[in-house]
Amino acid sequence: MTERYGGQTMWEPLRRVVVRRPGAAFGAADPARWHYAAQPDLAAAQAEHEGFVALVRGSGAEIIEHDEPLDDHADAIFCHDPVLVSDRGAILLRMGKPLRRGEEEALGRTLERAGVPIAARLEGDALAESGDLLWLDRNTLAAGVGFRTNRAGVAQLARALGPAVTVLSVELPWYTGPDACLHLMSLISMVDRDLAVAWPRLLPVTFVAELAARGIRLVEVPESEFATMATNVLALAPRRAVMLEGNPVTQARLEAAGCTVLTYRGREISLKAEGGATCLTRPVLRG
User: Fold this and answer.
1) Which of 73, 111, 114, 172 is spaced 20 to 30 A from 252 at the CA atom?
2) Is 85:116 a contact under the CB 8 Å cutoff?
3) Which domains does the chain have, with CATH numbers?
């Protein structure tokens, strides 16, 4: 039987992926309420999203449309966050941003229709968002602990993933406070088993040392490009990646490290709404 889900890496060839087209809720988003830089232009956002999806489809990935009704959920286009897909199936998380609650079950229904079983759900006081969850290898998941993911969430994730997976807690900084969306993956993205793009100034020394011990080299983002999400890079395959346009220094550094880099226009869907290439996708199958 053909595999339909799993992989537990961030860089192996992307085979199946969920995306969500910007809809009315995104176009009507109140910037103050959603912590956006400005009001999105819906028509422009939809055009940008189509261009982005075309790049991902062009890599050979099957596109799964997440079209479950979600009124008043502007952030639902960032379908990476509500669910973690593991080799056991989908783990429905519990969003740390209260405005996003409800996205978890909606995305779960889309995944079930695509043949992905629900393996577990976070409950009680547990919080986790997949933007804080970074596979370092098939058996090691780094989990950023901060405003969106707490220790109870990490503990429940570890139980759901089972003894074969080690979950490493990574303390996240306060930075600009709880309203901003600073995930672990705001600071680092894997582009191959031994290569990541990162802004290490906000990463704990212990985590940077762990990466070095694993032989993972960091392509460092300049401070001027951290604000334009140069750290938010989606690997389509080892050293083949998609990133937001307008980050030429980081792009050149990645290319010097042997990467092929594709760029997308994201003024509406990324710069205004604070979510990059990884945020716009929920990988379902890699490898």
Assistant:
1) 172
2) yes
3) 14-286 (3.75.10.10)
Which pLDDT tens digit goes with each residue over 217-273?
Answer: 999 999 999 999 999 999 999 999 999 999 999 999 999 999 999 999 999 999 999
What one-character DSSP code corresponds to residue 138? T
Which of the 8 DSSP states describes residue 96?
A: S
Adjacency order of strands within the sheet including 140-145: 133-137, 140-145, 166-171
User: Which DSSP state fits 197?
Assistant: E
Residue 1's pLDDT is what?
44
List the end-to-end C-alpha distance of the chain, in Å, as a whole number.
15
Nearest-angstrom CA–CA distance, 189 and 91: 21
CB burial readout 20-30, b (16+ within 10 A) else e: bebbebbbebe
Active-site residue, from 79, 181, 259, 279:
279
CB atoms within 10 A of CB 160: 20
Distance (Å, rounded) from C-alpha 65 to C-alpha 89?
18
pLDDT in tens, 118-153: 999 999 999 999 999 999 999 999 999 999 999 999
SS3 label, residue 17: strand
